[in-house]
Amino acid sequence: MIKKNPFVLLLILVLASCTGTQSTSSDTTTASKIEAAVSPAKTHIDAVRQQFAPDKRVALFDVEPKGTILRGETNMPEAKAALLKRLQAADVTFVDSIQVLPEAELEGKNQAIVTISVANLRSQPKHSAELATQATMGTPLKVWKKQNGWYLVQTPDHYLAWVDYGGVALMDQTAFNNWQQGKKLIYTNTYGFAHAAADKNASSVSDMVYGDVVVLKNKTKDFYEVAFPDGRTGFVAAAEAIDFKEWVATRKPTEENLVASSKEMLGMPYLWGGTSVKGMDCSGFTKTIFFMNGLVLPRDASQQVHIGELVNTDKGWGDMRPGDLLFFGVPAKDGKPERVVHVGMWIGGNQEFIHSAGRVRINSMNPSAENHDASELARFLRAKRVSPEATLVDLREKPLYE
Fold this sequence. Notes:
Layout (H helix, E strand, L loop, with lengths): L5 H33 L3 H11 L8 E6 L2 E6 L2 H13 L5 E6 L10 E4 L3 E5 L8 E6 L3 E8 L2 E5 L5 E5 L3 E4 L1 H9 L2 E4 L3 E5 L8 E6 L3 E7 L3 E5 L5 E5 L3 E3 H6 L5 H9 L11 E2 L2 E2 L1 H10 L3 E2 L4 H4 L4 E3 L13 E6 L8 E10 L3 E6 L1 E6 L9 H5 L1 E6 L7 E2 L8
Parallel strand pairs: 2-3
Antiparallel strand pairs: 1-2, 4-7, 4-10, 5-6, 7-8, 8-9, 11-14, 11-17, 12-13, 14-15, 15-16, 18-19, 20-27, 21-26, 22-23, 22-26, 23-24, 24-25
Helix pairs in contact: 2-3, 6-7
């Protein structure tokens, strides 16, 4: 019966064709991997990558050999120079096709400023990709390349991710310098709006969140007239914003202030990749706490764990101080490396810590406490005390917005 049915025969032929195509593609991929593995340049490429870009989240060195041709890109010219020098010293024949970013297609617009209250930065240039991090209005970004309306950018905490054209204003160096020199305001309410007129009942120009930075144009009795990076203007209630320099001067990352800042966000929702009051993951939460007190932390928990001084918890929690960071995960075992997957902040009291897990909440390490979190205690790794000197940027000494 099957042999006499032309439709079934056609289906079999189509399936056979698809299977054959997949097999060929797989064979080609395998052949490419084998070729790369045996390339005399491969060892040198790996060594340079380990030296300059051990963490691909913050440094780009995507280079692979194709026969004698070196293909790929990097945003570190010094890494490319180091690789070519190694290959020449080892007498390895190669053809240099490595592109050093930023790409020429950007036409010198290698800077950008975030233009919306919170820009979502993704792991790939598409809206369906994983949310990698966020950046608030006024945040300066480095721009490395463009792809279909998306830009590969780097945040002040060095994180590499993609942002769509609607979230940023591209600028050349002159325009960027002009923006940076403008007198800045920082929005300090948790959430609010900029209006089209000096009236809270006027239509909205943009929503605003804590940390948004704009340029001051004029001040009336109750409102600031502000300029956005993309040229729009609006009015922000004077009680909801403050001169950026005044704000920076009042930042004191004391134990009391860190705890107070963290409690302002109680109940806010967990959001994978979030680093703002619109939603935050665990490390986005600790990052926001420290930003509110003038300090910029690395983006992820697995990066934050490498800064600061170790706090001794071998004999209990007696040495812990409010503001210390607690890290959780899976310890190294059987040749597998440690995995840091969660972070929270110690607030004291009954061995309590605050963290973003489902929502921003307070739990305790004390098994007898009503809010004890047995699962977090079971996977606790270690605690770190982060001084201003250990952070990526102390805004009191190096303002990002000027």
